[in-house]
Amino acid sequence: MEITVTVNGQPYTRTVEPRLLLVHFLRDELGLTGTHWGCDTSNCGACVVLMDGVPVKSCTVLAVMADRHEIRTVEGLETSDGLDPVQQGFRAEHGLQCGFCTPGMMMTARWLLDRNPTPSDEEIREALSGQLCRCTGYENIVRSVRWAAEHETAAHAVPDAIPDQRAGTSAPRTRSDSEVQA
Ligand code: FES
Ligand code: FES
Fold it and tell me: Positions of the region Disordered (predicted)?
C-alpha cells in the first residue's frame, strides 16, 4: 500500500506492507532510529512517538494507520532555536543512564508539558507510568521533566513576573543553548 506520513514536518511517501509496524517504518524505511524498539508488546514505552500530538506506542500502530497523519519523533524535538527544554532537562538532571528508554520518556514529557506546563511530581509520574526504565529508578527522570517545566515557564513569563533568581532552587534561571551544549 502507498502511504504518505508527515514525520517531523516532512512528508514521506512509501509503499509498505499492510503488516508493517510504525516503529519499523520510522526506523527501517526512514532511518529515524531515535525511536527505540524494545519489548514489542506494548509494555516498555521506548517506542513512543506523537501521532497528531498524542503519544502512541509505535510498536502497536501499523504504518498504514499513520497514513495522512502527523508523527513527531525524538529527532523532531530539537529546533533551530536549539534543544527542546525537555532534552535540556534530561541533560541537566542526568535523566538517563543507558538511554534506551529516553526517547519515549522525552516524547511523553513533551506531550505532558504541552497540555500542562506546571505539572506536579505526581502528574509527571502518572504521565510516564506507561514507560519503563531499567536504570535510573525514575527519580532523575521526574526531576528532568520538572526542570523542563520550570525553565519553559520561566522562558515564557513576562519579565516582571520572573521570580528574583530563586536562590536555593534547582532552577535559578534559564540556560542559553550555548551553556547547555558546552
Ligand atoms: S517496544 Fe513498544 S512498548 Fe515496548
Ligand atoms: S536509562 Fe536505561 S532504561 Fe532508562
Answer: 157-182
